[in-house]
Write a sequence for this structure.
DNA sequence: TACGGTGTACCATGTAACATAGTACACGTA
DNA sequence: TACGTGTACTATGTTACATGGTACACCGTA
């Protein structure tokens, strides 16, 4: 209904915003996220859409949800799920194929990666 | 209707198969692709779905289509569209955030990239 | 010229995902 | 008890996908 969107569903966009904030250190472990209804107001989304994002994030162990209390940032996983690694590699393959096609050097990709890893350790 | 699928639409899956074959050197510049109807039989898809993939690939300058003759592999683009680079970078950001989260080292990502760049120069 | 192969453009149908709206429930805390 | 929390429904509407089918303009060749 809202759907101004470019390519990605709204709930996935929200997931990435949260993930990025965790990766950047803006959201720290144990920190409480806004409630489903509150986040809906902030982001201009339907509470159901936020709930969908939260549920998906919990399935990925990014957040922890305690019924009646709220949702909280979880500590990073140490070992990766095989399926997740495979999925991640496939996505990287797509990026690399595309980069190669338009003559972007591997070093350019490397520096983009290092740039992100550098943020807050 | 067919839709056994994991995640990606069929026409996009076909696009990536063709792109990968170009990147790997299986398909060379000037080579003719199977016709829309022929490819549909090969891949078990509807001709319209193949046509959609071909049309998208032409929009990305991967192939060239000559009405009445067929579709052919195009030479690689030298300079990248700004929007495409931005899109590519965003995808890489997503990969990196996810990799960081599950404790995959940047060096691991680097080697995956170099591995693909190594294929047939 | 006629014919077959090519990409393209339609229209119609059905399925699934997405997003919203609204209601209700079980739980924990103050 | 009252309130806020996540969750689970049902319902509605839109959009993307995929397929089926038909038709057209173009090219090359017999």
């Amino acid at each position: 209904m809202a759907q101004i969107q470019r390519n990605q569903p709204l709930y996935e966009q929200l997931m990435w915003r949260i993930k990025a904030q965790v990766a950047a250190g803006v959201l720290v472990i144990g920190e409480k996220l806004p409630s489903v209804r509150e986040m809906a107001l902030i982001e201009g989304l339907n509470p159901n859409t936020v709930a969908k994002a939260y549920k998906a994030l919990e399935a990925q162990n990014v957040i922890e949800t305690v019924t009646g209390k709220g949702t909280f940032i979880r500590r990073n996983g140490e070992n990766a799920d095989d399926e997740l690694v495979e999925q991640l590699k496939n996505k990287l393959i797509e990026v690399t194929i595309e980069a190669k096609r338009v003559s972007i050097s591997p070093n350019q990709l490397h520096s983009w990666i290092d740039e992100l890893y550098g943020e807050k350790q």
